[in-house]
Amino acid sequence: MKLNRRKFIGAGAAAAATLSAPAVLADGHGKPRVVVIGGGAGGATVARYLAKDSKGAIDVTLVEPSRSYFTCFFSNLYIAGFTDLEDISHTYGTLAAKYGINVVHDWAIDVDRAGKTVTLAGGAQLSYDKLILSPGIDFVEDAVPGWSVAAQNVMPHAYKAGSQSELLKAQIAAMPEGGTFAMVAPPNPYRCPPGPYERVSMVAHVLKQINPSAKILVIDPKEKFSKQGLFEEGWQSHYTGMIERIGPDFGGTNVSVNPDDMTIDIDGMVEKVDVCNVIPAQKAGRIADIAGVTDGNWVPVNAADLSTKVDPDVHVLGDAAAQGDMPKSGFAANSQAKVCAMAVRGALTGSKVFPAKFTNTCWSLIDTDDGVKVGATYEATAEKIAKVDGFISQNGEDAATRKATYEESIGWYAGITADMFG
Amino acid sequence: MPQRFLTLVLAVIFAAGTARSEAIGDAEAGAGIFEMCSGCHEIGKGAQDAIGPHLNGLFGRPAAAHDGFAYSASMKRAGVDGLVWDLSRLDAYIANPRALVSKTRMSFDGLDDAQERADLLAYLRRFSDNPQNIPEAAPTARGTDHSVAPEILALQGDPEYGEYLSSECVSCHQIDGSANGIPSITHWPEDDFVVAMHAYKAKLRSHPVMQMMAGRLSNEEIAALAAYFGALD
């Protein structure tokens, strides 16, 4: 996005005018138009709710490059064999057929906020009254020296699900007896805070069965991590002696990798490993930068409607947003999407706007039938999305509770994917 | 029993249930009636499958869903077709088993007396307070009276507001009513819904997510959700 300050002020003024008189939009060029970029937990949900609740009064276009979308949530369960890849794969047919959403499988490559258009890689231009970006994450370049996206087929991140998940699973299966699986964990903030540690659990679950003398090495720049007490208790009881975590005190912040000879250098100590799962530091998906709405790695947004701080007609959901207290999770993106859809619909059609409520719950699996969860409720304040109340599973819960928690996560998966894809 | 009469009886039972303070029937009398059943069915602590399946946790369970018991093909099909043992279905089944499941192996001709059935159901209900793996009781499980004030029960919910609020619920609960690890919340009688939500809010029901979710809902918001989910197509 090439937009100087003067142009932007002009755009802002125009936006303010349309906001105060939403009917003008409809008079100007038929139905109000919303373009959504990104078809994950945020984008698919916001598109579906806008189309569903406006009952055809809003023209909704969803831009998503992939025809099959693999959810990141439950992809660790796929690595452990608890679910198949097909079971976490979803398509956009229902959103198009049942809800009348114009689903475009293409890359968005440019955003002209002054002209209110989005350009696609295929050359098409889409005009919008409201633009909603839900682009997920990209990786910060050189976050882990020696690693780049070009090395992802040697040292997979598997932090966008699909072929990367398949690759990591195959590499684990091919590890030599007694070999080493290394994970380079990311610094905060990143997608799915318990994700790396659920993955460690799931890798341990596989290795315990097929390669019980193998080791897991976690190199972690963080002092603490999500659900730490629960994971460490589970690792101790299910995978005794298999997992070693190197935190910042022992060089976890000073790591580089060499994909050519499969070594990692931890604070000067070089270690040969058999699988190296590099989860680099993260930032908002690239289109957010192109649109010129980022500040640093993320996009500051207003809590009440997820609009960006710099442009009231551009909203950003999910992992890419710097919104306050919510973690970057699929559940959170889905929750933000519903608040955003209500606010955008209100702005465009005059429908009633209720106070924003947000929720998050993250389930993690430690071993067969050993599920744990953490969750919280949130509200919109002037400054941010602020936490109201929360809970977390307790250490030492009985097996029946843990099993019920796991089964609950399966129910949640069915619920949220139906809520996203119809 | 003629169908019309059965419908009337059920209407009476539901009316009694809605009044909330009244139990399904007299469970003590039901314990005596259960002696007719106990030749084949065990119930209570340590109950095991015998000629018939044990009857713990029966309310809210789909037909033929109890692992390890060899059900008739007819009963299995009923389960696949979606038969769930709620109050009205159990009442109909006990009244005339073959009317509901045509080739059931349960060799019982039926219990004509509506009061006796109600008493028996009240007794059976005692052993269904905690359906397996789901801490939430089914809407028909009228075993607990959490005494919500009448003026709260009388609130008329705004379904439009309920529809918006519902978007938080359907991140987990399926809008089509299917239940897989997370219970269905659609088509509950409104009063039951309101009572259940207030029981979470008061932390009488135990589930931490639901306590958190209900904890920040006002009386009006709970009524709005009950109105919306109760009236879904």
What does this structure look like?
The complex is a heterodimer of chains A (422) and B (233). Chain A has 422 residues and is of the alpha/beta class. Chain A has two domains: 5-138 and 282-351, FAD/NAD(P)-binding domain; 141-277, FAD/NAD(P)-binding domain (3-Layer(bba) Sandwich), CATH 3.50.50. Helices cover 31% and strands 25% of the residues of chain A. Chain A contains eleven helices and 24 strands. Chain A has helices spanning 5-20, 23-29, 43-54, 75-79, 93-97, 163-173, 195-210, 228-238, 286-290, 330-349, 399-421, and strands at residues 33-37, 59-63, 69-70, 89-90, 102-104, 108-112, 117-120, 125-127, 130-133, 137-139, 180-184, 215-219, 243-246, 255-258, 263-266, 269-272, 275-278, 282-284, 299-300, 314-316, 321-322, 357-367, 370-380, 385-392. Chain A has a five-stranded parallel β-sheet, covered by helices on one side. In chain A, strand 1, helix 3 and strand 2 (59-63) form a beta-alpha-beta unit. In chain A, helix 3 (43-54) runs parallel beside helix 10 (330-349) and helix 7 packs parallel to helix 8. Chain A is globular. Mean pLDDT of chain A is 93; it is low at 1-28. Chain B has 233 residues and is mostly helical. Chain B folds into two domains: 3-128, Cytochrome Bc1 Complex, Chain D, domain 2 (Orthogonal Bundle); 150-230, Orthogonal Bundle (Cytochrome Bc1 Complex, Chain D, domain 2), CATH 1.10.760. Chain B has helices at 3-19, 27-33, 73-80, 87-95, 97-100, 114-125, 150-153, 159-169, 190-201, 208-215, 219-230. In chain B, helix 2 crosses helix 6 (114-125), helix 8 (159-169) packs across helix 11 and helix 9 (190-201) packs antiparallel against helix 11. At the A-B interface, helix 10, strand 22, strand 23, strand 24 and helix 11 of A face helix 8 and helix 10 of B.
